[in-house]
Amino acid sequence: MNRVVITGMGVAAPNAVGLEAFEKAIREGESGIRFFKELEELNFSCQIGGKPEVPAEMLEKYFTPLQLRGLNSSGIIYGVIAGMDAWKDAALEPSPEGEVLYDSGIIFGTGILGVDKFREAIHLIDAGKTRRLGSTSVIQTMASGISAYLGGILGCGNQVTTNSSACTTGTEAVLMAYERIKAGKAKRMLAGSCGDHGPYVWGGFDAMRILPGKYNLDPQIASRPMSASATGFVPGSGAGALVLEDYDLAIERGAKIYAEVLGGEMNSGGQRAGGSMTAANSEAVQRCITAALQNSGIAARDVDLINGHLTATTRDSVEIKNWVEALEREGDDFPYINSLKGMTGHCLSASGSIECVASVLQLKNNFIFGNINCEDLHPDIQSLISDKKVPRSTIQSNGEMEILAKASFGFGDVNAVVVFKRI
C-alpha cells in the first residue's frame, strides 16, 4: 500500500486568508470573530460570527471577469481560493488546454452551498424573470459546485466529487482522498471543504439557542472552547484545502512535504446510546479514536497532540472524557490538546479542513498554538487532565512533537479522526 503525504495547503479562515498570514494568526492567538450589523437588524440573539475577509482585488487573482459576473456564493469563493492556493503551494500548475490530469482528483466537501444565490434565484423566478438568472446559477447552487469549479480550473481527471457530513466534512474529505491514493487509484488528490456565511446559514443555529447571545459587544472573547464560561459556539465560514500525494511521486519531483497521513477512521453512533442528531454517542467516538490509531499503526502513547473538535458547548468535557478513556491516558500523561475555534468560531462544514491545515502547520513548524478564551478551564475537564496540557499561548515544540490526532464530530452523530506524522 502506498504512503501518502501532504505537499500543499491553502486556507481562507475568519482570522486570516493565505497560509503565511494564517500561521501568524494562530501563533499569535488572533481572533477573526466580529459583530455584524445585519444580524442585529434581523433580531438574532447571536450577532457575531467568523467570516474571511476577501477584498475585490483578491477575487480578481482567482476568477476571470466572466466568472465574477453574477458570482454570489461565498462558499465557492472561499473554496476556490483555498484550493488554488494549495495547488500552487504544492508547486503544481493547472493542466494545459487539451490535457487532462488523469492521475489527479478532487474531494471537496460542503454542508450547504449558494444560499444567497438560491435566495436571489427564488425572487427572480417568483417575479417571472427566470431568464435573468444567468448561466452560473446552477453551478453556484448545486452541492458539487465547488469540486466542479476546481476540477475545471485545474483540469483534474481522476475522481472529482463533493462529500457532505456536517461538521465532519473536511476531515472526512482528507481521509477519503488518503484512501484513494493508498489504494493506488490516484497519485494525487486535492482534499478540502468550504462553507457559506451569513444569516441564512446561521439562522437555524440561532433558533436552536446554541449560539452565545451575551458577547455581542465583545465578539473576540465569545468563542470559549473548554471554558467554564462557554455558552455556545460562534458560527463561522471559510475553506481549507490540502494536496495529498503518493510519497514516491512527491520524492521523485522534489516536492516540499509538510507531513505524512498515517491513517484514520470514520464512523457513526447511529443516534443511539446517548447519541442524537446533535450529540455524539460516546462509545462510537471512542471506537473511532481507537480504530484511527490501529489503522495508523501507532499506540495511544505515541500521540503527542490532539486538535479536538471542541466547539465551546457543554459537550467539550464529554469529548475530553472520551479521549481519556480511548487513550487510557489522563492527568499529566494526557497529550497536549487545543481547539482552533476560539479564534475562528465553528466554521461548520469548513471546520475540519481549516483545522487540518492548522494541525499540519503545527507539526511542520514545531509549535502548539494556544487555546484563547480558556482562562477558566471547565472543572469537569480539570478533573480529567492536567491544566498544563491545555496551553493558553503558543508553545515552541523544538521537534519533540511527532504525532497529531485531529478529530471532527458532526451533526447526525458522525465522527472522523485523522492521524498526521511529522516527516
Task: Describe what is shown at a glance.
Helices cover 35% and strands 19% of the residues.
Report on this model:
- The chain is of the alpha/beta class and 423 residues long.
- The protein folds into 2 domains: 4-259, 3-Layer(aba) Sandwich (Peroxisomal Thiolase, Chain A, domain 1), CATH 3.40.47; 263-421, Thiolase/Chalcone synthase (Peroxisomal Thiolase, Chain A, domain 1).
- It has helices spanning 19-28, 37-41, 56-62, 65-68, 74-89, 115-126, 137-141, 145-154, 169-182, 199-207, 247-252, 282-296, 316-327, 341-344, 351-365, 379-382, and strands at residues 4-13, 16-17, 33-35, 48-50, 104-110, 160-161, 188-195, 238-246, 259-268, 305-307, 336-338, 367-368, 395-396, 403-410, 414-421.
- Strands 1, 2, 5, 6, 7, 8, 9, 10, 11, 14 and 15 form an 11-stranded mixed β-sheet that branches.
- β10 (305-307), α13 and β11 form a beta-alpha-beta unit.
- It is globular and about 65 Å long.
- One of its GO terms (cellular component) is cytosol.
- Keywords: Acyltransferase, Cytoplasm, Transferase.
- Residues 1-422 form the Ketosynthase family 3 (KS3) domain.
- It holds the Pfam family ketoacyl-synt.
- GO terms for molecular function: 3-oxoacyl-[acyl-carrier-protein] synthase activity.
